[in-house]
Amino acid sequence: MGVLIKAISAVVPENHKDVVELSAKFGETEAKRTIKNTGVKKRHISDPHTTALDLGEEACLRIFKEKGYSPDDFQGLIFISQTPDYKLPASACILQDRLGLSKNTIAFDVNLGCSAFPYGLAIASSFINSGLLERIFLVVGDTLSKISHPDDRSTYPLFGDGAIAVVLEKSTQNDILGYDFGTDGSGWRNLVLPIGQLRNPDLEVYKNFSSKKDFEKIKHPESIFMDGNEIFTFTLKEVPGIIRRILENSDKDKDSVDYFLFHQANLFILNHLIRKAKLPIDKCPVSIDDYGNTSGASPALTACARLAEINSEKVLTTMFVGFGVGYSWGGTLASLQKNTLLPISIYRGGKTNGH
Amino acid sequence: MNRKARIRKISTFLPEQRLTNDELANRFEKWTSENIFQKTGIKERRFSKETETASDLAVEAAQKIFDSGIVKPSDIDILVMCTQSPDYILPSTSCLVQNRLGLPTTTLTFDITLGCSGYVYGLSIVKSLLENGNGSKALFLTGDTYTKYFHSMDERVVPLFGDGATATYIELDDSKDIDWMGPFVYGTDGKGACNLRIEAGACRMPGYLADPSGKSDPKKSDAPEYLHMNGPEIFTFSLRTVPETLKRLFEKSSCTIDDIDMFVFHQANEYMLEVLRKKLNIPKEKFLIEMTDVGNTVSSTIPIAMERAIAKSTIHEGMKIGIVGFGVGYSWAAGLLVL
Amino acid sequence: MKREEVITEIETALNAEPNSLTVLRKLKEIETYDSVGQLSVIALFDALFDTVIEPKDLAECKTISDLLNLVKDNLS
After folding, report:
1. How many CB pairs lie under 8 A apart between chains A and C?
2. What is the 3-state secondary structure (H, E, C) of C7-72?
3. Contacts of residue C55 in chain A, CB cutoff 8 Å?
4. CA A157 → CA A220, A323, C37, distances in Å?
5. What is the mean pLDDT of residues B73-78?
6. How far from chain centre, in Å, is Cα A30?
7. pLDDT top residue among A211 and B259
């Protein structure tokens, strides 16, 4: 028994910001230095009425259109996001209705960021391999732009919005060849949004109760905070091990992998990681230049943005590696059959009320 | 022999502070302590302190599992937490819990964001992960502090809900050739999303969209920042959906009511449970009600009821238990367990 | 690796003028020793010595000499 990856689509919002906007905001020298470090020349930003759920829905609708599926073909839907429509109910329930999936659908949200894609593949595949369903949508999306502070030079110019959708299907063959996962919650304060949920519902509680030691570096507690040095050292310490373990577990070597698709954390980090892991640079496509750091969607979004054309001609053996917020990390070795990857597309819809 | 996932232990943790019917009768003039009990079946419910979150409660519940000696933190390879009251927007609450419990960094960890259906869904997710090579010993936590989402004068919700957390230890077991958990059936209907939700505070309606003028009065009970529930809609949804779901479960498992030793439904409110019990012709002695002193603890209601029944020996090893979770989403699921 | 060689590498990593950095040079006076510069030092030491230094140790460094101390076991 196995699981096939039948389609992957990626969607970004229409509006984008680039170096011109950054220069106007931070000055030309600073803007150039930021771009050199992050690698982000352009990133796509959702408007106030567009959410990750809207982008995820569009990614699913594209798959319906391009691959000829209909809503009745699916028995499950997993939505992974840290920027859902509501605190409750789960956005997956809303998406079930918007896509017209059956009322017998298995649907739930998972809260993960950078590591979402490999985790999502594992959870979805487990359902299929347990005989619970034939076909499932995995949707991963975030609008980090909505939770970044415009004055924060370490996050604002880095994050872009986007979503991906994957169809996983029961089969006698298997596209999913190996996994590795891990968690280290001791790194929680290095990528955190302190205010907005129950630990610190508002600024007043934050000021009264939060440990100063936990948040002394944070200037904008109502927005996402990232300690670049800590994230970099975490990446260097953990990610080479993920790659090595997946190859060992699936009895493969580096040379048999066509492409490594990393979470697009930041170009400086990625370049150093690629060197440290001794990977050929041409096997490590990058999408951060045109799309920014799109959180959990980024490994699959990179695949759609950079490999759709080559995948139209050949089967690709790919390793997806997600790592970051949590800290949480995961990797998957997967075969992408021909025409699995749909070219990245733009969401042009704008809804004034979501549901 | 195939190794199948089996529940080995459930533990629970409730915050100390209590909201009694007497206090509610003082707050809401039109009610008496007695008629609150008549309507809800609840005498008191627990609520968390301002600085106490679902993760604090869940860590306590999990610690009880470890204190029992049945498993060590270093042996856990999967941690799933079901909550709709996370500590932060990011990172996931389960990552914080992994750290606080000292679980290995090889642990596969994530949050699921479900409510009333969360325990049944969560068991199913953990079972699937365990039985497909992702680990052999899992900790499944539920925890919520819904009371923090309410306006204190919202009479539709304040009397019904309480805070709490549970921990369920599940491991692969090949001691008998049976499926300890399952089958499961599931359901989702997003058309019901509007009947139990918090409209503002996430991405569909961030603060600046909820109140562009910045002047609205957050103290009003109908403000979109608070949790709102349409009781009658939830009631009719439950009456429509639960019987049909049980029917599907019976078909899938080739069981009837007679084959099930005990039914544990999501403890939403006693009046609704009694209506359902009668509609389904489930005998009283096979229908667990365990909410008088805790109220509706969202995804914790089923495991709290089970843990108490186990402690009293009302249910015990070898029994077949039917569980049904239903509500916010709308989302629902039902399953069979062999203890 | 000799101390002088490491200092030359640090100069390259920070885009500083050759021979402009001495052991006693204060880090806060180096214009390019900002958040990007710090990442460059972490990357440099990892590339040279396969050692990932701890950000909190880096934060305590005040001079070039302090940076060298972080990798003193690798220096000849």
Report:
1. 40
2. HHHHHHHCCCCCCCCCCCCEHHHCCCCCHHHHHHHHHHHHHHHCCCCCHHHHHCCCEHHHHHHHCH
3. 227, 229-230, 233
4. 15, 20, 18
5. 98
6. 27
7. B259
Rounded Cα gap, residues B31 and B24, in angstroms: 8
A21 touches chain C (CB under 8 A): no
B181-338 is classed CATH 3.40.920.10: no
Among all residues of A, which ones are annotated catalytic?
Answer: 114, 263, 293
Q: How far is A249 from chain C (nearest CA, A)?
A: 25
User: What are the boundaries of each domain within chain B?
Assistant: 4-173, 181-338
Whether chain A lies against chain C with 3 or more Cβ pairs closer than 8 A is: yes
Q: Which of B125, B202, B331 sits opposite A84 (nearest CB)?
A: B202
CA distance C41 to chain A (A): 10
**B164-194: string of b/e by CB count within 10 Å (b at 16+)?**
bbbbbbbbbbeeeeebbbbbbbbbbbbbbbe
Structure tokens at C5: 């060689």
pLDDT band at A352 (very low <50, low <70, confident <90, very high): very low
Residues of B in contact with A103 (CB under 8 A): 187-189
The interface predicted TM-score (ipTM) is: 0.96
| Whole-angstrom distance, CA of residue C11 vs CA of residue C19 | 8
Which among B333, B337, B296, B308 has a CA at the least distance from the CA of B10?
B308
pLDDT, tens digit, for every residue of B81-118?
999 999 999 999 999 999 999 999 999 999 999 999 99
Residues of chain A with pLDDT > 90, as a percent, come to 87
Going along chain A from its start, the domains and CATH numbers come out as: 2-174 (3.40.47.10), 178-187+222-336 (3.40.47.10)
What is the nearest CA distance from B243 to chain A, expressed in angstroms?
14
A117 bridge partner residues: none
3-state secondary structure of B163: coil
Q: Which residues contact A353 (CB under 8 A, 6 or more apart)?
A: A49
- Whether chain B has a CB inside 8 Å of the CB on A199: the answer is yes
**More confidently predicted of B39 and A319:** A319
Which one of C27, C34, C35, C41 makes the best mutation probe of the A interface by having the most chain A beta carbons within 10 Å? C35
Cα separation of A342 and A225, whole Å? Answer: 33
Using a CB–CB cutoff of 8 Å, tell me whether A33 touches chain C.
yes
CB pairs under 8 A between A and B: 244
Predicted pLDDT of residue A130: 95
Structural domains of chain C, count: 1
CATH code at C70?
1.10.1200.10
3-state helix, strand, coil in chain A (%, to 5): 40, 25, 35
Q: What pLDDT digit, counting tens, does each position of B122-172 carry?
A: 999 999 999 999 999 999 999 999 999 999 999 999 999 999 999 999 999
- Measure the CA–CA gap between B95 and B83, rounded to whole angstroms: 13
Name the percent of chain B lying above pLDDT 70: 97
Q: How many CA atoms lie within 13 A of C51 on its CB side?
A: 18
The domains spanning B4-173 and B181-338 adopt the same CATH topology: yes
Q: How far apart are CA B131 and CA B118, in angstroms?
A: 20
**pLDDT band at residue A350 using 50, 70 and 90 as cut-offs:** low
Contact C47/A272, CB-based, under 8 Å? yes
User: Which domain, by its residues, includes C26?
Assistant: 3-74
Measured CA to CA, the distance from residue B272 to residue B274 in angstroms comes to 5
How much is the average pLDDT of A338-350? Answer: 93
Residue of C nearest to A238 (CA): C52
- Residue type at A247 in one-letter notation: L
Token digits for B225? 């920042």
Higher-scoring residue by pLDDT: A103, B222: A103
Compute the nearest-CA separation of C19 from chain A (Å).
23
Residue B84's nearest CA partner among B201, B244, B223, B209 is B201
CATH 1.10.530.10 matches B4-173? no
* Structure confidence at residue B214 (pLDDT): 65
